[in-house]
Write a structure and sequence with these properties.
The protein has 328 residues and is an alpha/beta fold. It has 2 domains: 114 residues, 3-Layer(aba) Sandwich (Rossmann fold), CATH 3.40.50; 177 residues, Dihydrodipicolinate Reductase, domain 2 (2-Layer Sandwich), CATH 3.30.360.10. 35% of the residues lie in helices and 23% in strands. It is built from 11 helices and 14 strands. Strands 13-12-11-7-10-9-8-14 form an 8-stranded mixed sheet. Strand 12 and strand 13 form a beta hairpin. The radius of gyration is 20 Å and the shape is globular. The N and C termini lie far apart (42 Å). The relative contact order is 0.16.
């Protein structure tokens, strides 16, 4: 059984993590710290855990060996640095840090501490995405030339995002910093680090941060990838498209269609795969297993992945603000 300390209830996914841990049969939530003591005490009562208002006392406790961090993004460097120094295994909500400099410094501290580290990149465990990656890696699409992924919702336009989601001093950014992380880490999952990146953001509803954003990156072999996100669109499922010289694949939500020259030759265009790969365990459950079995950070959810994601998202904002293409 893995004993876990919960760092903050701030993030919209924090409650889901607490529930997933409690239901796993492999982990026990022990104590919660929160930057907002009033909210923290209420959440601790709901989650049936202790509450500790002093972070230094919290992280020094010996009755848990791992932490799950759902704090404001801008607090990650200070909180997770202390967690690493205390020898705690670390699971964190994305991003690792807002700036590349902070992400690299924190990653070095975590690596030096030798603890298990996992960052939440859930689409990398998704069956449809794993199927698309298999097509790309196997060469079934020929030479891949382009791709796009979009994740968006109506949180601003329909006014259902909480007010604190627009406090840039806590979030570090807007749509690209939040939802935009998904297209960023998905395309880097398929193609690796980009060579260069350019981007635009906008604020149709004039909130405090970007509500609409598009990044365009050049990856290896001339692959052009579009990373799209927004808080101002309604009814849009996840959309992934990968284009190749021998075929293309399209993912809409959990549905996948494939078109290839080989399928066209037998008049069987737009084929839907009969089966998708099984879903991998969620990043959180991969973390729990890694902590229990001491197998190290799970592949595709580690420090290098976390730092690259911050580099790419920081490049989006730098490009938008400067009007220049950012070279990696």
């Amino acid at each position: 059984m893995l004993n876990v300390g919960l760092i903050s209830s701030w993030h919209v996914h924090a409650e889901g993590y607490a529930k997933e841990l409690a239901a796993s049969g492999k982990a026990k939530n022990v104590v919660l710290w929160d930057e907002n003591p009033e909210k923290g005490r209420a959440k601790a009562a709901t989650w049936k855990v202790e509450f500790e208002a002093d972070y230094d006392k919290f992280i020094a406790r010996k009755d848990f060996s791992a932490v799950v961090c759902g704090s404001p993004t801008t607090m990650h460097p200070s909180l997770l640095s202390k967690a690493a120094a205390a020898g705690k295994d670390i699971f964190t909500e994305k991003l690792l840090a807002v700036t590349t400099a902070d992400a690299e410094k924190l990653a070095a501290e975590i690596k030096k501490a030798g603890v298990v580290f996992t960052i939440s990149l859930p689409l990398r465990a998704n069956p449809a995405v794993l199927y698309v990656k298999k097509l790309v890696d196997s060469g079934s699409l020929g030479r891949v030339t382009g791709a796009r992924f979009r994740r968006s919702h109506s949180g601003v336009s329909d006014r259902w995002l909480p007010d604190y989601w627009f406090d840039v001093s806590k979030t570090g950014g807007g749509a690209m910093m939040d939802l935009g992380a998904h297209p960023v880490y998905l395309l880097s999952f398929l193609f690796g680090a980009p060579k260069r990146l350019t981007a635009l953001t906008s604020k149709p509803f004039n909130t405090s941060s970007d509500e609409n954003a598009i990044g365009i990156a050049e990856f290896k072999d001339g692959i052009l990838g579009m990373m799209e996100t927004a808080f101002v669109t309604y009814g849009v499922p996840d959309l992934l498209e990968v284009y190749g010289t021998e075929g293309s694949v399209f993912m809409e939500g959990s549905e996948v269609r494939v078109t290839t020259k080989a399928l066209d030759a037998i008049a069987y265009a737009d084929a839907k795969p009969k089966t998708l790969p099984p879903a991998n365990p969620t990043p959180l459950m991969q973390f729990v297993d890694a902590c229990i079995n001491r197998t190290g950070s799970p592949e595709y959810f580690g420090l290098d992945d976390a730092v690259l994601m911050t580099r790419m998202i920081e490049a989006v904002y730098r490009s938008d603000q400067s009007g220049q293409t950012i070279v990696f």
